[in-house]
Specification:
single chain; alpha/beta; 8-stranded mixed sheet; two-stranded parallel ribbon
Length: 398
């Protein structure tokens, strides 16, 4: 959809700056979602200010270095040297920004309830520096209602009217680390604004760096759509994992079964079993939806069952290892086991919610001499122990 005319003098001013590519963009949170976004805006020629409270990230970016595999260091160095991209820990710098996106992490608490402390902290620190004529967009995944229940009151407390003085929207991040096919430019961007003016300005912002921007009727629709995307995958991975358990008992090869089913040209989409769910989104995001529905008196049963199946997979993997050793008249305790790969997906240096970490922990807990090989993760800390990737060579395999 093309950007429509936006009513209001302040909105028109922001839209004019975006159209002329003279708008300054601020990014709060320079992690897996925020840094690619900052680089995309900077590459589009917009002066970009990145804010992060981690001193190591700020130092790396100021030195022209990248700490995320998908972002080449040469790109960061060029943008920093040109002055198009700068990083700081000072929220006051965002007073100069015309558009600000919030890309902070949203983990789960130990009880699997949403932990939005980073969102609250970001809007709390940002609010004193807001001014009329700015667009604020939340990208961090959260429960339906977060944009209007958490951000909007913090903004209006500054005496700013959303939709007239200042503009607020939700546009969920859709980052897939290590994906060589889909990146910021060719992944469609959802946008839901608190008012039509908010929506249209957010569309104008993302059209500068994304091929297809999809406006929806409200922030809550965009928030819920993001949760559906990840819940869809979590539930279907759980089905694949349960199918693997069933195929073991049936004595058939689950991989052959999935390949056979995949020959159907309609009505089927293959998912594959594995040691569980990893990454920031898939294991975590469905619980945001379940938590919200629980506050409304509804139990999200599919989400609960999928979580039960997926979180049990590391222990099942360990039991398969024990059974294989037993077949060779060996005990798990004292056995030498090498895990090939420790990150949650191929070709990324990302340990967030990585199931192999739990497999490694359980193996060591049961007395196995378990180590790992992963060129993307040379070292790691597991329950206070410093471990290093072992070489995959003849000596290790012997």
């Amino acid at each position: 959809m093309g950007t429509t005319a936006v009513a209001g003098t302040l909105a028109a001013q922001v839209q004019a700056k975006l159209a002329a590519r003279t708008a300054t963009v601020g990014i709060i949170g320079l992690g897996y979602a925020g840094l690619p976004m900052a680089v995309a805006f900077a590459e589009a020629g917009l002066p970009t200010i990145g804010v992060d409270l981690r001193a190591d990230r700020i130092a790396a970016l100021q030195a022209g270095q990248s700490y995320i595999g998908d972002i080449p260091a040469e790109t960061v160095a060029q943008l920093v040297e040109a002055g198009t991209l700068r990083a700081t820990a000072d929220y006051a710098a965002l007073a100069a920004a015309d558009a600000i996106t919030i890309c902070v992490p949203t983990p789960l608490s130990k009880t699997k309830a949403p932990d939005i402390a980073a969102i609250v902290g970001a809007i709390t620190d940002l609010a004193p520096h807001l001014r009329p004529g700015q667009l604020v967009v939340l990208e961090s995944t959260s429960y339906p209602g977060t944009t209007e229940e958490i951000l909007q009151p913090a903004i209006t407390a500054q005496g700013l009217v959303v939709g007239e003085d200042i503009f607020l929207a939700f546009a969920p991040e859709r980052v897939d680390p290590g994906n060589e096919r889909f990146g910021t430019r060719n992944t469609p961007k959802l946008v839901g604004g608190v008012t039509p003016a908010c929506r249209d300005l957010a569309v104008a912002l993302y059209q500068l760096i994304v091929d297809e921007v999809v406006p929806v009727s409200s922030p809550m629709v965009a928030e819920t759509a993001k949760l559906l995307e990840n819940t869809f995958r979590a539930v279907n991975v759980a089905l694949a994992n349960e199918m693997a358990l069933m195929c073991e008992r049936l004595g058939v090869d689950v991989w052959e079964v999935i390949a056979a089913a995949s020959t159907k040209p309609f009505g089927f989409m293959p998912f594959y079993p594995g040691p569980g769910l990893g990454g920031h989104c898939i294991p975590i995001v469905p619980h945001y939806l379940a938590w919200k529905l629980k506050t409304l008196g509804y139990e999200a049963r599919f989400i609960a069952l999928a979580d039960e199946i997926n979180t049990a997979m590391p222990a099942h993997i360990v039991s398969l290892v024990a059974d294989a050793l037993n077949d060779s008249a060996k005990a798990l305790r004292g056995a030498k086991v090498v895990l090939l790969g420790i990150t949650y997906k191929p070709d990324v240096a990302d340990l967030r919610e990585s199931p192999p970490l739990e497999v490694l922990r359980l193996l060591r807990e049961k007395g196995a001499e378990a180590v790992y090989h992963d060129p993307h993760m040379p070292t790691l800390t597991l329950e206070g122990a410093e471990l290093a990737s072992v070489p995959l060579d003849a000596a290790t395999l012997r």
